[in-house]
Structures are given as C-alpha cells and as structure tokens.
C-alpha cells in the first residue's frame, strides 16, 4: 500500500478484541492513504487515512485492505 491508495478498514477478528464496536459508520468507505506515519519503536507500518466522511485516523497496515469499488 502507498500514498493515494483507496482502502477499507478490517477490524481484528480476535475473540478477545471487541471488534463489533468498530463496525459503526465512523470509518465510511473508502478511505485514502494520506501518508505513512513514521513511528519510532515499532516495525509495523502505520498510515494516516482520510475517510469518506472527512475523519482522519491513523491505522495499522494489518487493519487495512485495498478497496474494490466493483464490489459496492
């Protein structure tokens, strides 16, 4: 994934993580990657995302998937 790509949010399916609360409309699809966050002390990539509703959040790459507009 790189800056400018359209993405969707995929919550963690872990049984201990209460992912159901993240299925609300806070992250309206699609989102666009604005930049990669340079975070010290971690090796996992993180991106700043602007969602369709205008919200801007930082998300781990493991919680993002490419957005396929043909499926909507």
Explain what the structure shows.
- With 72 residues, the protein is an all-beta fold.
- It has one domain.
- Helix content is 0%, strand content 35%.
- The chain is built from no helices and 5 strands.
- Strand 3 and strand 4 form a beta hairpin.
Offer a few descriptive terms.
72 residues, mainly beta, 5-stranded antiparallel β-sheet, globular
Task: Provide a compact summary of the structure.
The protein has 72 residues and is an all-beta fold.
Instruction: Give the CA-based shape.
Output: globular
Number of domains: 1
* Global mean pLDDT: 82
Quickly count the helices: 0
Number of strands: 5
Helix/strand/pairing category: mainly beta
Strand content range: 25-35%
Characterize the main sheet: 5 strands, antiparallel
Fraction in helix:
under 10%
Topology:
Layout: E1 6-9, E2 31-37, E3 46-51, E4 56-60, E5 64-66
Antiparallel strand pairs: 1-2, 1-5, 2-3, 3-4
